[in-house]
Write a structure and sequence with these properties.
By secondary structure, the protein is an alpha/beta fold. It contains 17 helices and 18 strands. Bound molecules: 6-O-phosphono-beta-D-glucopyranose.
Amino acid sequence: MSEISSILVIFGGNGDLTKRKLFPALYNLLSQELLLNNFAVVSVSRTKMTDEDYITKMKESIKEFSRFEYDESVFKELKKRVKYISFDFSSDEGYKNLKLELEKLDSIYKTDGRRIYYLAVAPEYFRIIVEKLKLHKMADDSGKYRVVIEKPFGKDLHSARCLNETITEAFSEKNIYRIDHYLGKEMIQNIMVLRFANFFIESLWSNKYIDNVQISALETVGVENRGGYYDSAGALKDMVQNHILQLLTLVAMEPPVRLDTESIRDEKLKVLKSLMELTPEYIKDNVVRGQYDEGYINGVKVPKYRDEYRVKHNSNTETYVALKLFVNNYRWDGVPFYIRTGKRTNRKLTEVVIQFKNMPKILYYNENKNIVPNVLVIKIQPDEGIYFQFNAKEPGSVSQIIPVKMDFCHSCIFGGNTPESYERLLLDSLKGDSTLFTRWDEVEYSWKFVDAISTLWLNESIDFPNYKAGSIGPKEAENLIKRDNREWWSR
Ligand code: BG6
């Protein structure tokens, strides 16, 4: 059992994230007996509701989204610790009441004033909530208070800096937990282990042996009901600035001196600092954007992006990005990193592909057309695992060579029901471990990189839509890699 003694205050307690992720995660943690007695949850939202109505709603969400079968006794444990409070996030009266409630719960659960404020709200409320918490003396840097912030952390470098200033006035950096749910994914956490606990892998992990790296995060879903947010963000800010660059840091980082939070973050930051500088000319040639047209996903017709709910009919927001970049440091000099992410593509797939260099073109190369490069594929989702492709002799033939795979299937060995990202991240924030959360300077350098692209795009017209829903993506993304005589590994 972990040492947790705190009250979790969820702002946005009636929102989608709370229903789909946070409450199911709390329930899952309780099912595994990972939450101790000194723990309670206060959900804050603007909608008026009784505790009873609220918890009934959460029960339905748990039934729908928890990875464990519903168990009334576990739910009862959770239910008795939940309190629902409604007020407008700018109301001083509301914070006063909240404070009183929290003090009452402190004495019941012996939480000694410790709080975790989870901001599961739209970004426009981040600032006001933090300011009010400080004003009402419910936040300081004593170490009793932590804040967990959902993305987007700003919409560009400037706004991210302003937001950070406001937050750091109330909380010190070590108590700020900027969540990136990709870091909670099982196979993403496995990347460091794979690299730094395996001699043969780490010793090949450089420009001496690696030809290129491909990072893909493709989805079949569209923007769903999030058009209002997404239309002002787009794939670059929604996925590349955070998830993809974080993933890239884990692939490219140097071994940290120790496995503690700051040592790991220091190495990740160095990768972000080594990202190439993007000139307008480079961006024009090496960054591709796309927007989906209507099409078919699993045989079902879906609308084009511009017809989605709360999306402008002439929107130029990208739903797909592909780019080539270089990490300009000693280890990676000259190795292209190809990145692609998009909505409404032909499949759900998140993976990292490490393609090794070709063998010298002698011996078997002369006779064999089948020789393929060695690749190591880290499968993040929907399948979790790792495979290594190599060349072997075809049985019975004298010299025919065929590609074969060594496949580690994570779910076959450990079972398919791996912890959800939010389970891990919520537990870490309750325990006070911020390793899997992004430090401010990481956010800052990621925005610097992304801003160079988005400011250029602002002033350039584009002919959208340019790929069909259910297709592999825009043809320009294919050309981006083909012109280097390479291909996306998964299609
Ligand atoms: C979110 C993005 O952060 O990640 C969404 O805002 C995206 O647009 C989602 O769909 C993808 O997450 P996952 O875990 O399904 O790959």
